């Protein structure tokens, strides 16, 4: 298959002053989650994930169920590669089908960016077990097979979104909460007494680049709400945007973030907690993005670029929040994004 590859930085289909969710939402009702997202956001809708439904709707199981020619089953120790598709794979695919049905219903006539998330190749490799119970991360051949399967299944998912919502411009998000642990050699083995060796940064970068190529003309966002996000590596891999928790950024990351912005990469800045209970905590949209303005000044970047270079999001998924807070959080992010456009300084 010939892959269509475009410059990921040549377009931002979400436009200026955009806001979105990270992915997960509270509850088990796919229609309610899709309705909430569509009602709160204007230019960057997202496909909600509902991990409270149980196995197969969780971060790892949801994506593992998508894999092409790789099958999984749930063991007491976690998700493990299986010989054939079984109940767990079918359940994961069924949950995703419900989610896509709901987004299709509440996106009728929508023209704009629509973000879908899958677990990235490195977090998946750190979490999926081979048949011997050890993570796929420890076997280079298994990692390559996993990345190839994920690339193929990702293409299929993006094609499904295009068919279901013809006016949408798909955006692919790779969730990589374990990426820094993979790079730092901090992923535990099955025994818990040792850790897997760190993976060479060039190998990590090339694998992510494979997913960027597989996405074709869909921009790729990499999300990690862990500390020490590798901005430079992600920029070199060709991602269109990096999604992160702004509260975890330290001065040591400033240079890498500045270079990332100057290269044309968008920042998805997580500015509010993802696990709130009371929506009254969200009362000052302009104040919420004061940290973004401060970072911009520290980097010496033009305020005129702020609204088109930063997308406002919660710091992480909203699965642990109350339903009322999750609704208010998305609306709050949208208002905060508009305040960046109205008053970038």
List keywords for this structure.
7-stranded parallel sheet, two-stranded antiparallel ribbon, alpha/beta, 345 residues, single chain, 41% helix
Short description:
Helices cover 41% and strands 15% of the residues. The protein is built from 13 helices and 9 strands.
Number of strands: 9
Main sheet characteristics: 7 strands, parallel
List the uncertain runs. 1-10
Please estimate the helix content: 40-55%
The computed structural class is alpha/beta
Distance between the termini: 47 Å
Describe the structure.
The chain has 345 residues and is α/β, with parallel strands linked by helices. Helix content is 41%, strand content 15%. It has 13 helices and nine strands. A seven-stranded parallel sheet has the order 1-4-5-6-7-8-9. The protein has a two-stranded antiparallel sheet with strand order 2-3. β6, α8 and β7 (241-245) form a beta-alpha-beta unit. α1 packs parallel to α3 (87-106), α1 (30-40) packs parallel to α13 and α5 (140-164) packs parallel to α7 (201-214). 52% of the residues are buried.
Q: Secondary structure elements and their pairing?
A:
Blueprint lengths: L29 H11 L3 E3 L12 H6 L6 E5 L2 E5 L4 H20 L5 E8 L1 H7 L12 H25 L3 E8 L3 H6 L16 H14 L5 E5 L6 H7 L3 E5 L8 H9 L3 E7 L12 H4 L1 H10 L6 H4 E5 L8 H20 L3
Parallel strand pairs: 1-4, 4-5, 5-6, 6-7, 7-8, 8-9
Antiparallel strand pairs: 2-3
Helix pairs in contact: 1-3, 1-13, 4-5, 5-7, 7-8
């Amino acid at each position: 298959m010939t892959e269509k590859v475009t410059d990921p930085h040549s377009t931002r289909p979400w436009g200026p002053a955009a806001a979105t969710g990270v992915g997960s939402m509270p509850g088990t009702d796919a229609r309610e989650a899709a309705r909430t997202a569509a009602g709160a956001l204007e230019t960057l809708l997202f496909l909600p994930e509902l991990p409270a439904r149980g196995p197969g709707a969780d971060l790892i199981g949801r994506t593992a169920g998508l894999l092409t020619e790789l099958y999984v089953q749930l063991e007491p120790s976690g998700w493990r590669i299986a010989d054939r598709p079984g109940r767990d794979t079918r359940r994961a695919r069924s949950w995703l089908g419900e989610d896509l049905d709901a987004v299709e219903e509440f996106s009728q006539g929508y023209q704009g960016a629509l973000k879908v998330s899958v677990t990235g190749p490195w977090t998946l490799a750190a979490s999926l077990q081979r048949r011997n119970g050890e993570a796929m991360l420890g076997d280079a051949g298994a990692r390559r097979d996993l990345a190839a399967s994920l690339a193929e299944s990702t293409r299929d998912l993006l094609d499904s979104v295009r068919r279901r919502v013809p006016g949408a411009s798909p955006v692919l998000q790779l969730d990589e909460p374990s990426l820094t642990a993979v790079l730092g050699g901090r992923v535990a083995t099955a025994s818990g007494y040792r850790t897997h060796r760190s993976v060479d940064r060039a190998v990590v970068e090339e694998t992510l680049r494979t997913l960027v190529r597989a996405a074709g003309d869909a921009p790729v966002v990499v999300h990690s709400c862990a500390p020490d996000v590798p901005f430079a590596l992600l920029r070199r891999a060709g991602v269109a945007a990096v999604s992160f928790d702004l509260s975890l950024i330290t001065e040591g990351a400033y240079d890498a973030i500045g270079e990332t912005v100057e290269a044309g990469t968008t920042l998805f800045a997580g500015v509010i907690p993802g696990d709130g209970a009371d929506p009254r905590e969200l009362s000052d949209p302009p104040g919420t993005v004061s940290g973004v303005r401060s970072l911009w000044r520290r980097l010496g970047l033009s305020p005129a670029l702020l609204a088109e270079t930063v997308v406002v999001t919660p710091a992480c998924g909203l699965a642990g929040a109350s339903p009322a807070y999750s609704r208010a959080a998305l609306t709050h992010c949208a208002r905060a994004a508009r305040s960046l456009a109205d008053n970038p300084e």
